What we know:
Blueprint: H1 3-21, E1 29-33, E2 36-39, H2 40-56, E3 61-64, E4 78-85, H3 87-91, E5 98-105, E6 108-116, E7 121-126, E8 131-133, E9 136-137, E10 150-153, H4 163-176, E11 179-181, H5 186-194, E12 200-204, H6 208-211, H7 214-220, E13 224-226, E14 239-243, H8 245-258, H9 261-264
Parallel strand pairs: 3-4, 10-11, 10-12
Antiparallel strand pairs: 1-2, 4-5, 5-6, 6-7, 7-8, 8-9, 12-14, 13-14
Helix pairs in contact: 1-2, 5-7
Amino acid sequence: MNSDLNVALKAARKGVETIKSYRNKKLNTREKGFHDLVTDADIATEKEILSVIREHCPDDSILAEETLATHSLTDNRTWIVDPIDGTTNFAHDFPIYCVSVALWEHRQPKTAVVIEVNRNEEFTAEAGLGAFLNGKAIQVSATDNPRDAFIATGFPYNDLSLIDSYLKLFRLFMDELQGIRRPGAATYDLCCVAAGRFDGFFEYSLQPWDVAAASLIIKEAGGAVTNWMGEDNWLFGERLVAGNNRIHQHLLKRIIEYIPPEFRQNVDIAS
């Protein structure tokens, strides 16, 4: 492991410790947006993660969900942090939520760590060096027939503009795929694609901290990640489709068929 991965692991593990310290406490919860929860645990966890990053990398930039959110990226080394992906799950004691820490440089992902708190699953990747789960190499599935495909998605909660088209697409996938799940944490969904548990994934209304780490893990596991136009500009685009190469192409084809062009475009391409 290089020093960047060590820093990412140290920061993410510190985040996990903080989350666990809030499990038996009464949470202070508020809506920062439509159906978009934030708790005092999110704020405290982000503070601890950032303290580790700043200690070791004081000159690096930071993009973090709760305190340093932005929709732009430079060539500088930038840490992209989601303290709790799956806050609604966490607030309701539903056991799927993650810490996500990524380092980007020259507008490309370099280092990634995602930890699913309850199962203590540590997904890691470094650009060009492969993807790992608890230290063991992982790769995307070999499923090539859509009828055998098991995929994940996320139900839109703060942007209902695509809901009618989305439901038509969802209905189609229910008919032609083996199964669909919605765990409620996009970061974890994507890591499960990397580990070969899911064959594919699609969602919209995603934010950069939802995908910055896990998408590198998928790529290093041999998978594909694009926006809904099949392009590489997905970090700030809010629309993402991923999977092994065959299932990714099938999902992308159906999205292009069922989602009107104006809704397939990236929302923000500031990256």
